[in-house]
Design goal:
Immunoglobulin-like, alpha+beta, 4-stranded antiparallel sheet, 9 strands, 2 domains, 7 helices
Length: about 240
C-alpha cells in the first residue's frame, strides 16, 4: 500500500511539473473569422478568430490552421467556393514555460509577436488576447512551406502497409503519416485503397480531412470507399 502511495505521488508530481513547464498559445487569424487549429493531431476551435491552446510542451509543434465557415449554411457555400482553406501549415517552435502571442497575416505567415515567461504554472483563466502596442520582442515569422514531392517517403509507407500483418497496424501507419506530413487528397485516397476494411478507410478519411493541402479536392477519396453509406458518413462528418 505504501509503495502504491509513493508511485501515485511521483506520478502526480511529474504531471504537475510537466504542466508547470508547459506553455500557452494565443493565436489570432487575420480575418477574425472562426477557425480550426490542428496541433499535433488535436483540434482546437475558435469562433471569434482567436484560438487558445493550453499546456504546450517545449519544442517544435506541427500546426494546421484552417478557416472555418460561420454556420452550417455558410459551410456548404464556402466548401464550394474554396474559402474553407488552410491559413497556415508547418512547424512552430514553442519555448518552455511561456505565454506566446501569435497571429496569422494576410500572406499566410504565422507571426510570433510576443513571448512572456510565466512566473507560475499556466492559469486557464489567463486574460484574452491582447497584442502589444510596442513589443520589445522581435517578431518571428513562420511561413507555410512549399509542398515538396515526398513520393519516396509516401511509396515507402505504402510498402510498409502492404507488409503489415494486421489492419490496425496499417491504420496506425497511415494516421501517423497524415498527421506529420503534407499530403494531398489523392494520396489519402491511395492510402485508403491500401486498407482492407471499410471502417478503417472511414477512420483515416476523417483523420486526414483537416490536414490535407487541397481540401477542395477531398471528394477524390470517395472513390476509395466500397459502400455509399461510408460516403454519406464522411459527408456528414465534414458538414457537422
Amino acid at each position: 500500500m505504501k509503495t502504491i502511495t509513493i508511485c501515485f505521488t511521483l506520478v502526480a508530481a511529474f504531471c504537475f511539473t510537466s504542466k508547470a513547464k508547459a506553455s500557452q498559445l494565443y493565436l489570432r487569424t487575420h480575418s477574425h473569422s472562426p477557425a480550426i487549429a490542428v496541433v499535433n493531431g488535436n483540434q482546437n476551435h475558435a469562433q471569434s478568430g482567436i484560438i487558445r491552446i493550453d499546456f504546450l510542451p517545449y519544442g517544435d509543434h506541427f500546426m494546421t490552421i484552417r478557416q472555418k465557415p460561420f454556420s452550417h449554411h455558410h459551410r456548404r457555400e464556402t466548401n464550394h467556393r474554396g474559402r474553407n482553406a488552410i491559413l497556415f501549415r508547418g512547424y512552430v517552435f514553442i519555448p518552455a514555460h511561456s505565454t506566446v502571442y501569435a497571429s496569422i497575416d494576410y500572406r499566410g505567415s504565422l507571426v510570433i509577436e510576443r513571448v512572456i515567461p510565466n512566473p507560475r504554472p499556466v492559469n486557464p483563466r489567463t486574460p484574452a488576447y491582447r497584442p502589444p502596442t510596442r513589443p520589445r520582442y522581435q517578431p518571428q515569422y513562420y511561413r507555410t512551406p512549399v509542398h515538396e514531392n515526398r513520393s519516396a517517403a509516401f511509396n515507402q509507407l505504402l510498402i510498409l502497409m502492404e507488409h503489415a500483418s494486421f489492419e490496425s497496424a496499417k491504420l496506425a501507419l497511415a494516421k501517423q503519416f497524415v498527421k506529420t506530413n503534407a499530403v494531398t487528397s489523392q494520396q489519402v485516397a491511395q492510402l485508403m485503397k491500401a486498407m482492407d476494411f471499410e471502417s478503417s478507410k472511414l477512420v483515416l478519411a476523417k483523420e486526414a480531412y483537416y490536414n490535407v493541402l487541397d481540401p477542395e479536392n477531398f471528394y477524390l477519396v470517395n472513390a476509395s470507399f466500397d459502400f455509399s453509406s461510408s460516403i454519406s458518413a464522411l459527408a456528414k462528418y465534414i458538414n457537422h
